[in-house]
Amino acid sequence: MTDPERKVNADLLVHCLNQLREQAGLDSDKIDQLLSILASEHGVVALGQIIEIIRKAGIQFRSKGWQAIAAAVQSQLGYTFFSSTRGADSAGMLSGLSEIRLLETLNSYAYTVGERQGLKTKIERAVHLREIRGVGAPQAAIPEFFSDFAQMLTVGFVRTGEYTVLPFPIKYLREYEDLILHQRKFAGRGTKS
């Protein structure tokens, strides 16, 4: 991602661009243009300063050629002077919204239940963290048993092909409890003729 406050080594960026000039698929003329713009920058500078220099030179990263150069810099140096989520693979950016995941938080464990199938482009609600508390077992044992627990969330008959958010035995135990309470509530009421 682009963080304008991040400190970067301008000399290392220039060195990276020189190396990228020989890489197939990248426009060497555009790289030369960037190199000429950045020639006066040396040492550690704010990334925002480099971005401002590039913008003042009139370079906009709308074409695929410029975007490919920015992506190559990001893969080499871990930062970029252009980032856009348009057309990006959302699954990589939103990995917490897919699958079933175990998280350790401050000596406790929680899990998330995302989408089984492809991610929707519109996120209507957040993925909830649900804390796991071991009964009769230490918290440290939870990762060992989580794969068995996760299998109880992957049944397709509970939520039309998606993961369940509670293990299916708990869901059906709650439904059974609701049925019993409903029967007790109405058991005393008879029909009068």
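The record above closes out task 2.4. Task 2.5 opens with a second protein, given below.
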Amino acid sequence: MTLEFHRTLPKGYTPPKLPDGTTPQGTSLLCQRMYIGGVRIDHQGGPWSDCQTVTGTQDPGASGGMGLWGLHDKGVNGTRLMVSTPEAEVAYGIVTLADGTHVKATTVTVPGTTYRAWAAPVPNGQTITAVDQYDTGDHRLTHDTDWR
């Protein structure tokens, strides 16, 4: 996964309409470019899928989310990516799989911004038993068992 930040809305980008008919506000664009086997997830949605408008380099609305992404059936089977846009104190995440494997993913930051993310691969046929996030002192900050 790659985080891509555009300080201004790129030429050719049209903000999507929200369910209430409004357009999201923002002066910049933050994209999560996720790939599995060289294929970009959501490539069918066009060049700006997996992007969100943000305001400048420190928009707090761009953090705190987590999702499971894949190329098939909305990420419920096949090889997938667990992706987190964590709060500032999160240094890394560990995804525990049903077979006992632990997949560690280190948080990266877009230089000059507060935008951060980590991504961990989940192999085909595996299910997730827990997702934990830790700070730089190895203290567990979150523990989530709602993913599969």
